[in-house]
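Reviewer 2 asked us to include a model.

Predict the structure of this chain.
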Amino acid sequence: MTGIEVLDPSAVHKTTRSGGFAMHSSNASILCALSLAVLSCTDSSTNPVAPSTSPSPVAKPDSVVKPPDTAIKLPVAGMRLGTGGYVTSGLWKGYAWSLGLGAGSTVAPADFTTITAADTRLCAKGIVGKDPAYGGVVMVGINLNQDALPAAGALEPVILQYTPTGSGIRYQVANPGGSELRIQLQDHSGTAAGRWCATLSGESGTVPWADFNTTCWAPSTGKAYDKEALKDISITVPGKNLTDVPVDFCLETLSEEP
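Predicted model (structure tokens):
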């Protein structure tokens, strides 16, 4: 199968908290952050109290003041969705987005602004339009290093780079449409040399970093991925040259394999 030349979605959209999507300049879409909590307790001896001649009560075991927990807490593994499509997964954090490229390509939803913390997956339906040059594609992606939106009216936070530390990617999808699915890695360059892909062999599994290639449909002609810094990761449905491709899939989890 001939490969597709996936354009950089970063050329297509900017958001504001109050205005929703315009198009994906950050590839991006939308909102809410996972925070880490550190337990802190107040020592009652530092709180002044009125003098008393009453006997001091004996402390019960469950009322003993514990010292603050200062242990470093790592991010929770596994993909979690937040308000407006803000995704966290281990060390990854950023907005989810959808994109259709090529004549006749459509994707719904156009963005993930309606996602809440109660949702568990990112789904897309549509069509990849046929293209003699195999230029059609539908994508659902996640920015890897992006803060959550600040106050209403502010511009969407910049997307920073993320350098992988693990051994590859763990994924799980549902694919009732039956189309070919790939995972695509993308850096900030917006060039074909800064995009690597791997074709998924099933609805769940792991893909080692070494399996990603700039031409995953013909690996011998491309360049293997070598843990270069990335901007985003996406699930893509590649198009065909003579027929449209129906799109109907859900991304259920995507995370970095240790």
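The two ends are 32 Å apart (CA to CA). The CA atoms of residues 45 and 52 lie 15 Å apart. We have added this to the supplementary material.
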